[in-house]
Design a protein that fits this description.
The protein has 139 residues and is mostly helical. It has helices at 2-27, 29-42, 44-59, 66-80, 83-95, 100-114, 116-138. Helix content is 88%, strand content 0%.
Length: 139
């Protein structure tokens, strides 16, 4: 039984490290470490699940390239109205070479399926992210 627990823990460690590396690649170490520290204060389990599963398992898959995966995430978050995470993923997209125009076009396309209010709100969030990204570049 102890051997099985060690093996499960080892697999989780590998997934966690892989997930952390994926997140670092998208947003950078400082942002990820600060965000996870805040989440860990609220709940350590959710932080672990997010890193291991969302980033270690799903984002770590190789069938979609990184830019396509980020655009899919932006579309889903815009549709769901999850503005905080939407902003983070737009910033991640910009940092990973997705042009501002591509993000805008993706959000306009979202209006057909999610509705105009969702697209409009998402474009407002994108505008904030674009400004923040430009300000960060100037530093």
């Amino acid at each position: 039984m102890r051997l099985r627990r060690k093996k499960v823990k080892m697999v989780r460690n590998v997934r966690y490290k892989r997930g952390l590396n994926v997140a670092y690649k998208i947003w950078g170490k400082k942002f990820v470490d600060e965000t996870l520290k805040d989440l860990r204060k609220i709940n350590k389990d959710l932080e672990k699940y997010l890193v291991e599963y969302a980033f270690g398992e799903i984002y770590g898959r190789k069938r979609l390239d990184e830019k396509t995966r980020i655009l899919c995430t932006i579309t889903a978050l815009a549709t769901l109205g999850k503005e905080t995470q939407l902003k983070w993923h737009i910033l991640g997209g910009l940092k990973n070479g997705i042009p501002k125009e591509t993000i805008i076009e993706t959000l306009i396309h979202t209006s057909v399926y999610a509705g105009f209010p969702a697209a409009w709100n998402a474009l407002r969030v994108a505008q904030q992210a674009f400004k923040e990204y430009e300000e960060e570049k100037e530093k």
